[in-house]
Amino acid sequence: MLWNLNGTLSHQQRCTNPPPHTLAEALAFESGLGVENLVLVQPSIYGDDNSCLLAALKKLGPSRGRGVVVVDPDTVQQETLDEWHCLGVRGLRVNLQSVGKVMDQAELEETLLRHAEIARPYNWIIEIYLPLKMVPMVESILPQLGVRICIDHFGSPELLSTDVGTSFDPYELEGFSSLISLLRAGRTYIKVSAPYRLSKDHQMRDLQAMAREFLSVAPDRVIYATDWPHTRFSGVDINPFTECCLDLCASQPGLAERLFRRNTEEMLGVVPE
How confident is the model over 79-133, as pLDDT tens digits? Predict the structure, then answer.
């Protein structure tokens, strides 16, 4: 059965919130893509209040649901982490991009090290959402962490052109070479997701070029995700992006299975049925 990473759910209106989204809506959306199992990722609007995500995991059960939560390293308790692990939590999220937070090397190192101390005993991942230009800092920090990481949304590059053409070279993007080095090193996953947040080219040729490089150097660590419910965007059609991902896998037998299922299972410790 397929596993897919997407945004988590919301049951309350807040001043910065999009309309609420329910577990039933998530399951209905994903079933249209042939997905039966969900990975729920904590959004920035809830901070470290993971109650909505955890309630959804309880309903899904550990055979169908996994979660990536946000924690305050100063206050989270061991008993809480144990309980979350039993529910299906398998990762911690560090989100700088959504809130526009800028860190220098020392601040980022301290943040990731503190999260790694929490994640390491459970073999959880750290999911990092930050601008591509900050990835070189992550490259220098990773050897100290002792955990695996997952970089969100193609590494969040700044893609400016509306007419990319065939000459686009992702290695000209600040931070891309470091991202490729991280993938080659073997303890980093990359999510290909949320193209509508990144590319201004209607054919997504810039993102296709990036994805080809990811799949070339680390076919076992590239993760497809729908990014549902597409927070702050309306009328998103994910099908063209999904078809694009399938096309990128067409020349290599078994690659689509990895991109859409196996890599996520391995990253999150899911035992295949």
Answer: 999 999 999 999 999 999 988 888 999 999 999 999 999 999 999 999 999 999 9
Tell me if 192 sits within 8 A of 228, measured CB to CB: no
Q: What Cα–Cα distance (Å) separates residue 194 from each residue in 54, 98, 141?
A: 23, 13, 26
Within 10 A of 237 (CB to CB), how many other CB atoms are there?
A: 9
- Residue 251 clears pLDDT 60, i.e. is over it: yes
pLDDT score for 175: 98
DSSP code string of 178-211: HHHHHHHHTSEEEEE--GGGT--STT-HHHHHHH
Is residue 255 within 8 A of residue 263, CB to CB? The reply is no
Tell me if the bond preceding 229 is cis, omega within 30° of 0: yes
User: End-to-end alpha-carbon separation of the chain, Å?
Assistant: 8
* DSSP codes of every residue in 36-55: EEEEEE--GGGTT--HHHHH
Which residue matches tokens 């309350």? 12
Q: Which pair of structure tokens corresponds to residue 86?
A: 């039993």
